[in-house]
């Protein structure tokens, strides 16, 4: 079952990561207008953000494998419709926007179901290993997706690229949909209000998620201003920095289940705080090679953080509320990074690049390490996180 779960998540992550690059290239071919591209991408993002809390409710009311199945099948149909239209020579921005909105809505309903599916499928000491494998698979998918999407669009055409994405969603749907869980029928009222009550009862979760939001916002600043600053060291330097981050993240994911974890939330806080390093390196600014090393270290911390966070949340949140609680987590993360990307250039134009980057570095360190003031954050690990795995 674990192998099926990992494969299904990898397929879904790859298909999801293909969409932005494919849509971007499609719109640029159709009109070449930045405004049209912004509309299409916003039509995917806005429904996702608005519907995520309701997706959490759905994930807690129904078996998570069925929710994941329907979400991936919906995205399959939307991407297939885009492919068929493009192959038929129909190139309407309005159609792309509507289908992008359907895709975003499906993401909103499918995303909260995944943590429940993992928690209901894998228990005890195996859960951290499972989350590490899923994180590794999804990280590799995200890294390879832009190149794959570009090759498909340029080699076979955007219509066939969209159909290939649809095929991946179909494969993911039937892989994850075939996972069988023993989750009991929900008891009580599965409402947004009850989900928020679960969050308020756990200060460690709320402060950690707000810290993650700061991290994602500042990551948007780094990813926007980084290429502008490091171009001074040569056009290839930003590519080197990004690849250094990729290597660091994969190393962190690989190391996470092998670390002697005592307090997992402390590990998450320290891992997130490492992102202050590349922000400060850019603010100085140090050489491109120094920024690459700093970014590799930061992404190593993120690689450790993700499987630890996934596991400790599943350990500490009741399974009947996990979908709603995690939808709030996803909402903060999904909303914060685009905001950082959007404001980076105006901030740099108003205050220069150094000041926003220094503020961001301090904010990441303070928000990440500030959670250590909450007593529950320092609580020793549950059995599933208590010892290193080899």
Automatic annotation (TrEMBL):
Keywords: Cell membrane, Membrane, Transmembrane, Transmembrane helix, Transport. The chain crosses the membrane at residues 12-31, 37-59, 134-154, 160-183, 204-230, 236-256, 263-283, 289-309, 330-351, 357-374. It is a multi-pass membrane protein. It is found in: Cell inner membrane. Signal peptide: none annotated. It comes from Nonomuraea mangrovi. This is MFS transporter. Its main location: membrane. SUPFAM superfamilies: MFS general substrate transporter (SSF103473). It comes from the Bacteria.
